[in-house]
Amino acid sequence: MLSVQDLKIYFIGDRSVARALDGASYEVRTGETVCLVGESGCGKTVSALAILGIVPQPPGKVMGGKVLLDGQNLLDLDEEEMQQVRGKRIAMVFQEPMTSLNPVFTIEDQISEAIMVHEKAGANEIRKRCIQLLRDVGIPSPEERLKDYPHQLSGGQRQRVMIAMALACNPDVMIADEPTTALDVTVQAQILRLFQELQQTKRMSLLYITHDLGVVANIADRIYVMYAGIIVEQGDTSHIFQDSRHPYTQGLLASLPSRTKRGGALHSIPGLVPDPSDKPLGCPFHPRCSFAVKSCKIKFPEMYDYGEGHVSRCPVLYNKK
Amino acid sequence: MQSVIGWIKAVDGVDLTIHQGKTLGLVGESGCGKSTIGRLILKLLEPDEGRVMYHGQDMSGLSDEAMKPLRKEMQIIFQDPYGSLNPRMTVGQSIEEGLRTVGMKGHGERKKKVAHLLEMVRLRPEAAAFYPHQFSGGQRQRIGIARALGVDPSLIICDEPVSALDVSIQSQIINLLKELQNQLGLSYLFISHDLNVVGYLSDTIAVMYLGHIMEYAPAEVFYDNPLHPYTLALLSAIPSSEPGDRHTLPSLAGDVPSPFNPPPGCKFQGRCPLVEDRCRKEEISLYPVRAEHLVRCWKVIGD
Predict the structure, then answer these.
(1) Which of A20-29, A43-52, A62-71, B40-49 has the lowest mean pLDDT?
(2) Which of B193, B200, B253 sits opposite A262 (nearest CB)?
C-alpha cells in the first residue's frame, strides 16, 4: 500500500546540516495499523510530512529515497497532482486539534471544505455527509454540533472532529501524529478505541506516530522503532515488546516506570539523543549503548533478520545469539 | 469594570497529609485542581476556607514577612523548567538568586554552593556559566531541581516534572528525584496525570476529580484494591505496555464537566457506570473503609 524507501531529508542551515531523516524505510499494508515509535527529534514527524509532501522546503530538502503509494512515487508528483492525493488518498490527524482547526469557522464549514476540495456535491448532500461523519466519530447530537465553533468543544471532541475531517473522503491511509498526546487518559482511551473501530469498519491503513509505548502496545500490528533518523528495529508487536533485539528498544522498555518496579532504581539510558547536525559516526546509538564494541564506533550497522519480519540494526546482539 | 459571573470551586474540601521523607502522589485529569493544591500549600494562593498546616503551624494567617522562613522550607519544580528560568540569566545567576534571597551574603560562598548544587543534580559545575537555551529539556529540569534545592527545603512540590520529557530522559529524572529523597530526607508532593510514574514513586496516592479527593490510600492498597469507580476507570485507561491486554480499552463516556457548573451530588455521577439515584442528589464525603484508605462513593460505602 504505502511504502517509504530509504528516505533522506536534511535541513540545511547556514552553518550546519541537520540530518533529520537518514535513510528510513517502512511500509504500511492494507488494513494494517503500523506504529512509528521514537523520542522527540528522531524524525518520525518529518517522515510523515514527507509522505504528504509538506516538508517546508527550504530549509528542508529531500536528499533521496522514495514514497510509494500503490507503486507510484509521490515525490515525483507536482503540487497539483499531490493535492489529489492529500486528503483523498492519504489523510492526516495532528497532535493539537485546536491549532489545526480554524477558530473562526464552524465545524460544518471545516468538514464540508474537506469534502468540497475533492468532490462536487450539493449543499444538502454535503450537510448529510457531515452529520454522518460526526456520528461515525462518536459525537453526540451531531446536527447541533455542526453550528459550533472549535472553542465550544472539549479537547477530545475537537480531536474527533479532526478525525471526521480526515475521514471525509474515505482515505486509504490515515496518518495520525501523536493524536492523543494532549488528551487526558480517559479521553485518550476513547480516541484509541475510536481509531480501532474506524479502522475495522473502513478497512483503512493506519500509520500511527507516537512516543508512548503504552499506546503502541495497545493498537499496533507492527512497530518500527526510530532513533536519530533511522529505523533501528522493526517487527510485530510481540517481537518488540517480548523479544526485542536492539539495545535502544530494550532500554526504552526498561525505562518505563510502573508500580511493579517500585523500590529498585529505574533503568535509564545514559546521555542524550544526538544532535541531528552532529551525529556520531558508526551506529548513532553507540555513545549511549552498554553493548557497544569498537566496531560500533566506525561501522554503520546493517539490518539483521530474526525471521517473521523481525529485523534489528545491532550486530553485537545478533552475534551473541 | 469587572463583574463576577461565577465562582469556580477548583478545590473543595480537600484533606491531605504529607509525611516527612515520603511522597504523596496526587493524580487526576486536567482541570481537577491538583496544581491548585500545590499552589495553596505554597501560599501562592489563599484558600477561601480551610488551613494548610506545616509542622503543626497554621500558615493561613501568616503575613508575607512571617512566611519568609517557611518559604525556604518549601519549593516547587514545574513541568516546563524553561518557562521558569530567566533566559537572560546564566544558570549560575538563576541558582544564586535563590541563595541571595535567603541571606547567603558571601559571593565566594554562593559560587561554591552553586557548584555543589549542580553536582548534586549530576551536572558539571561549568554549567553555571551557560544560558538555559543551551541545555536540553532533561538538563533544564535538573537545573530547576538544583535551584529548588538551593535553600535546603524539606518539602518539594513536583508539578508534572517529567511529563514533557522523553522516556529515556524521564527515567533519569525520576531516579534523581528518588536519590535526592533518600539522601536528604525530602518530602514530595508529586502531582501528575501519569499513574505509571506516580505508582513508581509514591508512598500514598490521592485521586482528584473536579476539586474533590475521590480516593486516598497507601500505594499498595491503591493498586491492589482500588475501590472508587473513577480510580478503576483511570487504572484501566492507562495503556498497558503488555501487548496481551489489548482490545480491552475501556471507555469512560464523556468529558470532565466544567468546574463553573459542577453537577449536584457526587461530582463523578455524570460519567460513572455505577451511578444510582442517590449519587445524583446527595453529596458524599470521604469515608474511611479501613485504616488509611478513604473513598468518596455511595456504592462503595453502602448504607
Answers:
(1) B40-49
(2) B200
- Per-block mean pLDDT, blocks of 10 residues, chain B (303 long): 52 76 89 82 78 78 82 86 85 90 84 93 91 88 93 91 86 92 93 89 91 90 89 82 53 73 84 87 86 88 71
| ∠ CA B186-B172-B98, rounded to 5° | 50
A259 pLDDT above the threshold of 90: no
The answer to whether residue A148 sits within a structural domain is no
CA distances to A32, A86, A190 from B248, in Å: 19, 33, 12
Q: Does A67 touch chain B (CB under 8 A)?
A: no
A160 lies in a domain? no
Nearest neighbour of A217 by CB, restricted to B174, B196, B246: B246
Residue B7 has a pLDDT of 58
Among B80, B134, B171, pick the best mutation site for testing chain A contact (most A Cβ within 10 A).
Answer: B171
In eight-state DSSP terms, residue B231 is: H
Residues of B with CB under 8 A from a CB of A: 29-30, 136, 138-139, 166-172, 174-175, 178, 193, 195-197, 199-201, 219, 223, 233-234, 236-243, 245-247, 249-253, 255-256
Beta bridge partners of A86: A90
Contacts of B113 (CB under 8 A, 6+ apart): B99, B104, B150
Closest-CA residue of chain A to B232: A186
Average pLDDT over residues A14-34: 89
Let me know if residue A271 belongs to a domain: yes
Q: Virtual CA dihedral for B89, B95, B99, B104, nearest 10 degrees? A: -80
Residue B200 and residue A142: Cα distance in Å, rounded?
Answer: 42
Confidence at residue A84, expressed as pLDDT on a 0 to 100 scale: 86
The 3-class SS string of B267-291 reads CCCCCCCCCCHHHHHCCCCCEEEEC
CA dist B108 and B95 (Å) reads 14
For residue A306, what are the domain limits? 2-89+171-320
| Cβ partners under 8 Å of residue B4, min gap 6 | none
Q: Do B171 and A269 touch (CB under 8 A)?
A: yes
Q: Which residues of chain A have a CB within 8 Å of the CB of B22?
A: none
CATH number, position A256: 3.40.50.300
Residue A169 has pLDDT above 60, yes or no: yes
CB-CB: which of A214, A259, A265 is closest to B239?
Answer: A214
Residue B62 lies in domain = 9-202
Q: Give the dihedral sign, CA B8/B12/B17/B22.
A: negative
Count the domains in chain B.
Answer: 2
Q: Give tens-digit pLDDT for B171-223.
A: 999 999 999 999 999 999 999 988 889 989 999 999 998 888 899 999 989 88
ipTM over 0.95: no
Nearest Cα to A207, choosing from A53, A51, A10, A311?
A: A51
**What pTM does this model have?**
0.83
User: Of B202, B236, B263, which residue constitutes the final position of a domain?
Assistant: B202
Query: Residue B247 has what pLDDT?
Result: 45
Q: B198 vs chain A: nearest CA distance in angstroms?
A: 8
